[in-house]
């Protein structure tokens, strides 16, 4: 299908992969060695996206360029942006003890100078499914009020059998807009229940909670908002080497302050990803199942 508007896909590929034990963004999972990113790019092209921006660390920039530029030539405009520890961080807040980037909202902010159109944000190491990309493209082509969007997934369907996960847990109103979204950084399954391990004790979560898997849709006016919120975040957290500026923090504050609305979209009917090395076998099997069903060709870019 063709789109009426230019829409960019922003791929967050700068993560360290500490729990996975390797660079999971460029690991092969498909039958012809495809990365998870390959399937997201393929689905985005089918949905009518016109550009992709990769957010990467400096040390993997050349590898990502070599892998993706040739196959995307003539299909999408391509840009690369480095997420460095110092990017958009005023000198007075730079922390020499920090070893990892400032999180997903910081990664989005890094693309401020190269994105001027509506854009979707995804994680490089999550498989979202074709319907999610179509839902977001359709939203941008019909949205006239300047609202943002989040593809909603059901919490019980986006957990790992191999350890705790971090998820943005949401609540929506009767019209399908987000009322709140909170990043729960340690969610586990215990005794048939889903539990968030919080500083002030365990919190049981509903299995049906609408959940952010970092598949968001933003209007370009989000950038100055993120930038101002990031400076506030740094004021409070610059001396904490583990603090992360997550997308749900921005979404939640924006909603609370009445600075924007976020529509919860359907389309989140399939998701899988890799947090731990043990997840790889299962993800490879699920992709093969989709190939066997004819959802994707065995050689994606042939």
Describe what is shown at a glance.
With 302 residues, the protein is of the alpha/beta class. It has helices spanning 36-47, 61-72, 104-109, 130-142, 222-237, 247-256, 279-292; strands at 8-12, 51-56, 77-82, 119-123, 126-127, 148-154, 165-172, 178-190, 193-198, 201-205, 210-218, 262-265, 272-273.
What would you note in describing this structure?
It comes from Chryseotalea sanaruensis. InterPro entries: NTP_transferase_dom, Nucleotide-diphossugar_trans. Residues 33-171 form the Nucleotidyl transferase domain. One of its GO terms (molecular function) is transferase activity. Keywords: Transferase. The protein is an alpha/beta fold and 302 residues long. The protein has one domain: Spore Coat Polysaccharide Biosynthesis Protein SpsA, Chain A (Alpha-Beta Complex). The protein is 27% helix and 26% strand. The chain has helices at residues 36-47, 61-72, 104-109, 130-142, 222-237, 247-256, 279-292, and strands at residues 8-12, 51-56, 77-82, 119-123, 126-127, 148-154, 165-172, 178-190, 193-198, 201-205, 210-218, 262-265, 272-273. Strands 1, 2, 3, 4, 6, 7, 8, 9, 10, 11 and 12 form an eleven-stranded mixed β-sheet that branches. A two-stranded antiparallel sheet has the order 5-13. It is globular and about 50 Å long. The relative contact order is 0.19. The model has no long low-confidence stretch (mean pLDDT 90).
Based on the model shown, name its key terms.
302 residues; alpha/beta; Spore Coat Polysaccharide Biosynthesis Protein SpsA, Chain A; two-stranded antiparallel ribbon; 7 helices; globular
């Amino acid at each position: 299908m063709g789109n009426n508007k230019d829409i960019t896909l922003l791929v967050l590929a700068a993560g360290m992969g500490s729990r996975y034990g390797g660079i999971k963004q460029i690991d092969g999972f498909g039958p012809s060695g495809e990365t998870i990113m390959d399937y997201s790019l393929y689905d985005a092209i089918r949905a009518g996206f016109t550009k992709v921006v990769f957010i990467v660390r400096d040390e993997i920039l050349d590898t990502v360029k070599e892998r993706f530029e040739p196959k995307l030539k003539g299909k999408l405009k391509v840009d690369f942006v480095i997420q460095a520890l110092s990017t958009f961080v005023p000198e007075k807040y730079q922390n020499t003890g920090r070893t990892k980037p400032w999180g997903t909202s910081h990664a989005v902010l890094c693309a401020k100078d190269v994105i001027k159109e509506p854009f979707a944000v995804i994680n490089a190491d999550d498989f979202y499914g074709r319907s999610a990309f179509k839902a977001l493209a359709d939203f941008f082509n019909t949205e006239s009020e300047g609202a943002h969007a989040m593809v909603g997934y059901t919490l019980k369907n986006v957990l790992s059998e191999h350890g705790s996960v971090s998820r943005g847990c949401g609540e929506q109103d009767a019209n399908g807009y987000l009322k709140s979204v909170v990043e729960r950084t340690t969610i586990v399954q215990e005794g048939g229940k889903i539990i968030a391990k919080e500083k002030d004790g365990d919190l049981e979560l509903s299995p049906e909670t609408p959940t952010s898997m970092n598949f968001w849709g933003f209007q370009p006016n989000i950038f100055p908002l993120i930038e101002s919120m990031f400076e506030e975040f740094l004021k409070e957290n610059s001396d904490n080497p583990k603090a992360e500026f997550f997308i749900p923090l921005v979404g939640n504050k924006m909603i609370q302050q009445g600075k924007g609305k976020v529509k919860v979209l359907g389309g989140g009917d399939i998701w899988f990803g890799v947090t731990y090395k043990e997840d790889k076998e299962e993800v490879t099997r699920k992709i093969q199942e989709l190939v066997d069903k004819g959802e994707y060709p065995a050689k994606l870019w042939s």
